[in-house]
Structure formats: C-alpha cells, structure tokens
Design a protein that fits this description.
The structure is a single chain. The protein has one domain: Metallo-dependent phosphatases (Purple Acid Phosphatase, chain A, domain 2, 4-Layer Sandwich), CATH 3.60.21. The N terminus is likely disordered. It is of the alpha/beta class. Helix content is about 30%, strand content about 15%. The chain is globular, with a radius of gyration of 18 Å. The protein has a six-stranded mixed β-sheet with strand order 4-5-6-7-9-8. Strands 3-2-1-10 form a four-stranded mixed β-sheet, covered by helices on one side. The chain has nine helices and ten strands. Helix 2 links the parallel strand 2 and strand 3. About 45% of the residues are buried. The chain binds fe (ii) ion (2 copies). The site of one fe (ii) ion (FE2) has 6 residues, from helix 3.
Length: about 280
C-alpha cells in the first residue's frame, strides 16, 4: 500500500472484492487500517452469496472505525449456489438488515459525516442501479441497445440473475432508486462524498473494451449529481478499471479490485484501498 499523505485518519475505499475468488479473499483478509480512526467504503460486488458478503463485512467492520457499504450487481444476484433465494428488492432489504446487524452503514441509513482530515463531509452511500440509458454507438433506444448487445453476444449476467421484483423491470427499480436518492441528497447541507457502485457520469465507460456493456453501468439521470449535491469526490466501482478521472473538477475514483485475471495485468501497483480523504496530492 502507498504511504498515506498524512499520519492522521483517512477515509479509504475499495470495491469489487469478489471474494469467491480465493486470491481476492486473501487480499480482502489483508485489508487493515493504518490508524484506529480510518473508515472504509466498500462500493459493491463483495460477493454473490449472503454468507460471503456478511462474513467479509463482519471482518472489515471489526477492523475499521466505520464501514460504509453500497450494493453491487453481484450482491443482488439470486445465484444458484446461494441458499438465500430472495430476489430483487427483498434481497436488497435483507442485505441492509444484515449490514445493520453488523453496524455497517447502508443507503437506507442516516448518512455518516466524516470529521477527520478533509472533513466535515457527508458520506452518502447510494444505490441507483442502471436503466440502459448509456446506449451503444449507433443506437438511441433501450430496445435498440439491447438488440445490439444480443447481436454481439456481450450481455451482462444480470439479465439472468438480477431480478427486479416487485418492480416490472430494472429500469423501473432504477427510477425509484434515483427518486429516493435525490430526495435524501437534497436534504444534505455541505460537501459530500457520493458513493455508488456505478460511475454517476457516463464518461468513465468510454474506455470499456465492449462499449455495449455500458448499458449495465449506470443511468443518465445521475449525470449532474456531483455538481448538484456538492461532491468533493465520487467513489464507484463495477468497471474493474481502477483510476481517477475528473469531471467538472470533481475527482471520480474507481476503486475496484476486480478479478485476479484483471488485477494481475495492471502494469503498476494500484493503491488498495484508495485514499479518498484527505484528498491525495495531485
Ligand atoms: Fe465487479
Ligand atoms: Fe459490478
């Protein structure tokens, strides 16, 4: 891990631990704070089973002063190997209850305020999902976009395992989540760190190897949230492309670990977990 910018407490972040991979589990088990007051944001895709998710968050909660979690698409899968057969919103609600029992912050709880270096800043965990509005090149409707993806064979596994029940569609669930999150964020005073599994703006998806995958990566409805809601940083994952980009001057940190076949290929070591506050130099 890179040296911290100060000796004081830090707001740290990681996502896409995917601990069903043994090599990733080892990395998760090695995550440790450097001070007793460090917080850890876990921005989704911990695992696919409730048992793995709970075990990992329990371990991290035992180490970090606060842990803030948002769901990734993998948490929301009703995977064959998970004895917990809950689907859609019921599955999400169950995960929220699991987190509350562990003392982990979720998008359904009062937003915690980071008062360490770089604070005070409200840390807002969000769950907004996606609505296929990041259309592939040459398409302009959801149906055209999905048809394009079916033609190339690049179709996200969510189509088979992430059920929107009781909503009629993932788009409808997304619309409800966006409205709920906007109401909550509008009530926040002062600066924020916005945390979501998805990048909030489309730009980071421009470098995807398969541009049609962007459909499963967010919604155009969140494109101005970093400006509207006073973000000093945005934290996300899902793309498995760890880096920081700036949009309207706001740093957007993609903090994923990703799959072993991916992280083994990164030419330079990536700081894990990433430091969000105090803001890293440069
Ligand atoms: Fe992931
Ligand atoms: Fe994901």
């Amino acid at each position: 891990m890179a040296q911290p910018p100060t000796a004081g407490p830090r707001l740290l972040a990681i996502s896409d631990l995917h601990v069903s991979h043994a090599d990733n589990r080892e990395i998760a088990e090695a995550l440790k704070p450097e001070t007793a007051d460090d917080w850890l944001i876990v921005a989704g895709d911990v695992a696919e089973t409730v048992d793995d998710i709970a075990r990992t968050l329990r371990m991290l909660r035992g180490r970090f002063a606060e842990v803030v979690w948002v769901p990734g698409n993998h948490e929301l899968w009703t995977a064959r190997r998970d004895p917990v057969r809950l689907r859609g919103a019921e599955r999400y609600d169950h995960l929220v209850e699991v987190c509350r029992d562990l003392g982990v912050h979720t998008p359904e709880d009062p937003y915690p305020v980071w008062t360490g270096p770089g604070g005070p800043v409200t840390v807002a965990p969000l769950f907004t999902l996606y609505d296929y509005s990041f259309h592939p090149p040459g398409t302009s409707t959801v149906e055209e976009g999905l048809e394009y993806a079916r033609g190339t064979g690049v179709v996200c596994t969510d189509e088979y395992l992430l059920h929107p029940d009781p909503y009629p569609s993932r788009e409808a669930w997304c619309a409800e989540r966006v409205a709920y999150s906007e109401r909550r964020l509008a009530a926040v005073d002062g600066p924020t760190v916005l945390v979501d599994h998805y990048p909030l703006v489309r730009d980071p998806t421009d470098v995807l190897r398969y541009p049609e995958f962007a459909q499963w990566c967010g919604t155009v409805r969140t494109a101005d949230w970093h400006r509207r809601f006073g973000a000093v940083a945005v934290v996300y994952g899902h793309l498995h492309i760890p880096r920081t980009t700036r949009h309207d001057g706001v740093p957007f940190h993609e903090v994923s670990l990703g799959y072993p076949r991916e992280w083994r290929k990164w030419p330079v070591p990536v700081e894990r977990p990433a430091t969000i506050l105090p803001a890293p130099a440069g």
